[in-house]
UniProtKB/TrEMBL annotation:
The keyword Transit peptide does not apply. GO terms for molecular function: transmembrane transporter activity. One of its GO terms (biological process) is plasma membrane copper ion transport. This is Cobalt-zinc-cadmium efflux system membrane fusion protein. PANTHER family: CATION EFFLUX SYSTEM PROTEIN CUSB (PTHR30097), SLR6042 PROTEIN (PTHR30097:SF4). It comes from Pedobacter nutrimenti. Belongs to the membrane fusion protein (MFP) (TC 8.A.1) family. Pfam families: Beta-barrel_RND_2 (PF25954), BSH_CzcB (PF25973). One of its GO terms (cellular component) is cell envelope. It comes from the Bacteria. Keywords: Transport.
Length: 415
């Protein structure tokens, strides 16, 4: 039986409308089926991140030990920063007493020298005049001395006049003083008066090292003109190097002479150096409300240079502190962490049989990494201050934390 065309069109429209109505009803009831499954990345993002987890067998294999955070009396410290210095008598600037041309420099930068060692030669033609004046005074003094002795003998015999004796005595003292002054001047220039007396004159004089030490910056060069008051080079003796630390007013009452100090070299991988306080200034430094505290450094053999920045930990007594073993703290990316036991093993099982694998999974221990700030360390323990509040009687990893740290870094790299 054939239906008319208009009836077929009407049936098609009715069927389409029924299909659309069915789909809308399904969407309203939340029963619509997604066209595709969620991607693996979406599923991973929706899963909660889990902490580190180890079984009993794994913990025994890597010797992980668990314990409590302790409280011990450790040395309390005052932290102060500063830099290394040497006493004024252990550093010198080399100058010339009389200007002249630098004839020769006998040392190089970094060379060690002893006190009195010749380090340069200066040439000055004016030296010849000084030596000539000395020779003239020396030769003229022979007559003055003879006249003085003659007038003295006459006076003692009562034959001479007092006026003649006084005149000869004045000439004698004046010429003697002049000779002594010229001799002293030549001595300061490093020229021997005995050598000049033999007629051996020179236009050069030596520059000697005023202290024992190491040559620093040489600012002069051969052939240049050296003027009085202008330094030719620096010399530093580091044998008595010490640290000048700035202690602020709030901590000043805790500082005493003789207290032990541990130094950390800021730019030397925080190397530790021991020392002790030997002096405390009695005035504030540059209106900073800080006082300079001087600390002598024990002999260490390290290459310490004045100007190096240091951090000093001054031992000011003992204090009850929150501590953990040194092995419990790990470092990563400039921060410090401990591992806290987040979930204990041996859960209570329900009364039904389980496989060995399920039991082993139930006995796994979960760990959480917590950032801490460390303080003083002593006798194998180190002070910590957690950056988040921890439960009372919390347990931590006291040994083997480095394994958990490497495992956490490996997990992060895989992700």
């Amino acid at each position: 039986m054939k239906l008319p065309i208009n009836i077929k069109q009407g049936l098609s429209i009715i069927l389409v409308m029924l299909f659309i109505g069915t789909m809308m009803t399904a969407c309203k009831n939340g029963k619509a089926i997604p066209s595709e499954k969620p991607t693996e990345s979406h599923a991973e993002k929706e899963e909660p991140a889990e902490g580190l987890e180890l079984s009993k067998a794994q913990m025994q294999a890597v010797s992980i030990q668990i314990g409590n955070i302790e409280h011990k009396n450790l040395s309390a410290v005052v932290k102060a920063s500063g830099k290394l210095e040497v006493p004024p008598q252990n550093k010198a600037q080399v100058n010339v007493l009389s200007g002249g041309v630098i004839f020769r420099i006998n040392v190089i930068e970094g060379q060690k020298v002893s006190k009195g060692q010749i380090i340069a030669i200066i040439e000055n033609q004016d030296l010849l005049k000084i030596q000539q004046d000395y020779l003239s005074a020396k030769n003229g003094f022979t007559y003055v001395e003879a006249e003085y002795n003659r007038q003295k003998q006459l006076k003692d015999a009562g034959a001479g006049t007092g006026k003649s004796f006084q005149l000869s005595q004045a000439n004698y003292n004046s010429e003697l003083s002049r000779i002594k002054a010229l001799e002293r001047q030549l001595q300061q220039l490093g020229i021997s008066a005995k050598q000049i007396a033999t007629g051996n004159l020179t236009s050069q004089y030596p520059i000697t090292s005023p202290i024992k030490g190491t040559i620093g910056t040489i600012s002069a060069q051969t052939g240049s003109y050296a003027q009085p008051g202008t330094s030719l080079m620096d010399i530093v003796d580091n044998s008595n190097i010490h640290a000048d630390l700035i202690v602020y007013e709030k901590d000043l009452s805790k500082i005493r002479i003789g207290q032990k100090v541990n130094f950390q070299l800021t730019n030397q991988d925080n190397q530790l150096i021991e020392g002790k306080i030997y002096g405390i200034n009695k005035s504030f430094e540059n209106d900073s409300k800080g006082v300079v505290v001087h600390a002598i450094i024990n002999k260490t053999g390290r290459n310490l240079i004045p100007g190096m920045y240091v951090t000093g930990l001054i031992n000011v007594g003992t204090e009850l502190l929150t501590v953990v073993p040194l092995d419990a703290v790990v470092k990563a990316e400039g921060k410090e962490y401990i591992f806290v036991v987040e979930e204990s093993s041996e859960k209570k099982h329900e009364a039904h049989s389980e496989s060995d694998e399920e039991k082993e999974a139930e006995e796994a221990t979960h760990f959480k990494k917590v950032e801490v700030v460390t303080g003083v360390s002593e006798l194998g323990y180190i002070q910590i201050t957690p950056l988040e509040k921890l439960p009372e009687n919390v347990q931590i990893v006291t040994k083997g934390a480095f394994y958990l740290q490497s495992k956490s870094m490996g997990s992060a790299e895989e992700e």
